Amino acid sequence: MSRRGAAGVRVEFGVLGPVAAWDGAGEPIALRGPRHRAVLARLIVARGRVVPASLLAGDLWADPPADAIGAIRTFVAALRRSLEPDRPPRAPARLLVTDGPGYALRAEPDAVDAWRFERAVPAAAELAPGDALARLDEALGWWRGPAYADFAEEPWARADRSRLAELRLHAVERRAEALLALGAAAEAVADLDAHVADHPWREDAWRLLALALYRAGRQGDALEVLRRARTLLVEQLGVDPGPRLRRLEDDILHQAEHLDPQGSAERVWTRAAAAYDRTVGPGARTRLESTVGLLRGLAVTGGGGLEAAREHRVAAVAAAEELGDAELTARVIGAYDVPANWTRADDPRQVARVVAAAERTLAALPPAGHEAARARLLATIALESRGTGSARGRAAAREAEELARGLDDPALLAFALNGVYMQAFERAGLAPRRDAIGAELVDLSARHGLVTYEVLGHLIRVQSGGALADFATADRHAAAADRLAERNELPLVGVFTRWYGAMRLAAAGTAPYAEAEAAYRDAAGALKGAGMPGLEHGLPPLALLCLRLAYGLPAEADEGADYGPYEPWVRPVLLLARGRRGAAAVALREVPGPPRDLLQEAMWCLVARAAIEAGSRPAMERAREELAPAAAELAGAGSGLLTLGPVAGYLDDLATALQS
């Protein structure tokens, strides 16, 4: 926590450029003349240590005047008034303090940009490339010019200036390394080209530039850069290139595989696949199990991969069943443990075939043993029966969890918990239960390196945090999911976090409607080609309708909008908006109970709204009964996608309407 003034106002200091200070609102603080800024800068250099007034005088003047100490007291008093303007008279200063014969600046480590920079650069070395790039970009953005720019000639600033300048150059080079690790060689070339032009004595910069050029497919340019570096070092500095530069040149000439990890990975894949084809016969049963392992990885790569994985999974299960080996079929079905957090199936027909095969395989397994295989089959049934509200799905989830907890297999337990989560919707208002499942998944997965399930746990906590209006928690878990997704190439995660961002904006209700609408349309664009029709179908127009209602605007449908599976609960609202009260009353009499899923509270709130307006007492009573357990939640926000506001407000409106 940074040092604050008497009224609790944060003060920040900047020396990465001209010396400056800012108040809690980010507004510049007037520091008076150059001597005042010199006193402040000199105390920042001292890092909280006391600087005697006599030493300050010697640093501020080459030949201190007779009244130098009195002048310094005047400078300090003026600085105190600027830094702590609300400090009561005669109250002791908290930032610029008097201590014995001198003064000290009692600023916390995060209050001075140079101190933050000194921590951020080494810390970036411990991060994954994507996180390191973000940290270094932020840190380099703190620079406004040379360090202590207005005191470049002062001896007392020289050591700090040199050290910070060197650290900045190091940060630029580590940023280039992060770009190379992320495969952004072309971007790294542009930055490094300017860097070596300004700092031609830095061998590591030349090495990185040559490597970036090589990875960008410019081998000749890479060799030319190394020749330029050698010439400059020998002719201007009188030194030979170091071993790393010499080794890089030899590696480029021989196109060493380690120079391009991505290219090496491609070669490894090709060779391993060829070896597999040579050694594992076409009819070998192990090919089915290997295929499912590939499909599991394919499913998290994005739209086309997810759709292909679903299709080939069904074919693999059918092929396994044809062989008549229940244990093999159980392994093939159970190996597809791809995490899922949306409660509507993408392809119900495929799901039905997988569930039926899992049930047949359960019945065919020998009665003794095979607990892990049974747990995986039961977890599959629970997972794929999501949104149906079936007793079988809930029973399968409970049994899978019980079996998994009795076995020392974290991955199996995570799979089972996914099934438990998918069956935690038998009524409205169960966000706290689902939050506990998400918390266990995050903890379990983080301890055992189950990255995709750790992401799932974070997304579940985003959803439950939204339902419980705990947006601070939801924000943290959304950020954690994004970090893991970037580090592990899981592009579909961004679909959910982008939708959460739109919902978060809508739930706050402070942004203009047009801004919230634009966020939703942007999120809808992320669904295109994502390979999740169970999520996409009907969601964008539903979200925009809910946004209008949440902002108190008339219900209007997008032209030609397809509400897909949500149409029965949307229809009464739209009919009333068009003045068709009688048709709305009929629709309310016929409206079914919504699926037991992430949007059930939102669907019941739409029914409640229409029922109140249409005066449909039976529909009001149904909605009140279903919504009562969710009185503490935000309607629909448990989806992490949209919201209709507090359920309690709908319950109050229903109670008033029923009483009248």
Description:
With 660 residues, the chain is mainly α. Among the domains are: 1-174, Arc Repressor Mutant, subunit A (Orthogonal Bundle), CATH 1.10.10; 183-271, Tetratricopeptide repeat domain (Serine Threonine Protein Phosphatase 5, Tetratricopeptide repeat, Alpha Horseshoe), CATH 1.25.40; 513-659, no CATH class. The chain is 64% helix and 3% strand. The protein has helices at 34-45, 53-60, 68-83, 113-124, 129-140, 155-181, 185-198, 203-215, 219-237, 243-253, 261-279, 286-298, 303-322, 326-334, 348-364, 371-384, 391-405, 410-422, 431-448, 451-467, 471-488, 493-508, 513-527, 533-536, 539-550, 567-577, 581-590, 600-614, 617-627, 647-659, and strands at 12-14, 20-22, 51-52, 96-99, 102-105, 634-635, 645-646. The strands form 3 sheets. Strands 3-5-4 form a 3-stranded antiparallel sheet. β1 (12-14) and β2 (20-22) form a beta hairpin. The relative contact order is 0.05.
